[in-house]
Amino acid sequence: MQYRKLGNSDLEVSEIALGSWLTYGVGVESDTARNCLAAAFDCGINFLDTANVYGKGAAETFLGEALEGRSRDSYVLATKLFFPMSDTDSGLSAEQVHKQIDDSLQRLRTDYVDLYQCHRYDPDIPLEETMQALSEVVEAGKARYIGFSEWTAPQIQAAMDIAGVASFVSSQPQYSMIWRVPETEVIPLCKESGIGQIVWSPLGQGVLTGKYKPGVELPSNSRAANPLMNQFMDGLLAESLLNVVDNLRPIASDLGISLTQLALAWVLREPNIASAIVGASRPEQVEENTAASGIELDEESLAAIDHALADIIQR
User: Is residue 54 among the annotated active site residues?
Assistant: First the structure.
């Protein structure tokens, strides 16, 4: 496993991070989830990403229990807030920032998180209020650094223009070989501003692993076949998309790597990416994912990927 510095922070994070969206505390049985977490640590992953809304606290609760007894300085822990936790608890008001960090810390059984992230931008709350509250969380020692997920470049710039508040060190956008939207504005701005990327869905929710084949029944043990985990896969299983992904197989084969490793290595080719978040429902998936760390793709392979995916890339 190789490690990268996260933005202007002093956090050294593994190139592959373990996420818990739709999996731990939700769609994956507890013992299996614990085995995945153990495999992650065995493979060198030190970066764990979660959010209060994952399972309405269930993912954080699972991690709090599973990490108990492990040295706190042996891993980097990130969580988020924004989405509704109840009819009255949502958004990025000062009240919610302080309430949700305390609730997250209680579920995670820790005194602090390394990274506290705004899960989305809140247009209903003054940005100054949110940034001041996040700064107070950092000053209180409840979070070492702050970040955001899926903010636009103007929103990021507006936060940076506020004087006297904590600075963002991380951005968490969707990013993959088929979803390249952040390349236009977000990544360039973040590069200039000391903000690193922690990307989600680098495998297109599993579609870029090649496990889903056109005209073939969904694997019974896959995310797409699990009603607890497949709510957000509409459109990703279209035969037209699966046929195009199939064109990547010769590229991966020529390099002697799997499609999964090809997709992750492609994401990590970008220097501003600090880590790629993967989900895993089996330990062997963790092992395959982490083997992508350190793979460097040559220009010929990158050009072949662009050619293969030309008709479906979203920019």
Answer: yes
Q: CA 276, CA 201: separation in Å to the nearest integer? A: 8
Question: Per the domain annotation, does 259 fall within a domain?
Answer: yes
Which domain, by its residues, includes 150? 3-308
Closest of 18, 37, 26 to residue 226, by C-alpha: 26
Q: Is residue 314 part of a domain?
A: no
* CA nearest to 149, candidates 167, 170, 165: 170
The mean per-residue pLDDT over the stretch 204-216 comes to 78
**Which residue has tokens 């769609």?**
27
Q: Could you read off the pLDDT of 90-145 as tens digits, one per residue?
A: 999 999 999 999 999 999 999 999 999 999 999 999 999 999 999 999 999 999 99
Q: Indicate the angle between helix axes 94-108 and 127-139, nearest 10 degrees.
A: 40
Total domain count, the chain: 1
Q: How confident is the model at residue 210 (pLDDT cuts 50, 70, 90)?
A: confident
| Banded pLDDT at 225 (limits 50, 70, 90) | very low
Strand runs labelled E in the chain: 3-5, 12-14, 16-19, 47-49, 76-81, 113-118, 143-148, 168-171, 196-199, 273-278
Which pTM was predicted? 0.90
Q: Which of 54, 75, 121, 175 is catalytic?
A: 54
Average pLDDT along the chain: 92
Task: Give the C-alpha separation, 83 to 188, whole Å.
Answer: 27
Mind giving me the DSSP string for 204-272?
GGGGGGT-S-TTSPPPTTSGGG-TTT-TT-TTTT-HHHHHHHHTTHHHHHHHT--HHHHHHHHHHTSTT
CATH of the domain at 90: 3.20.20.100
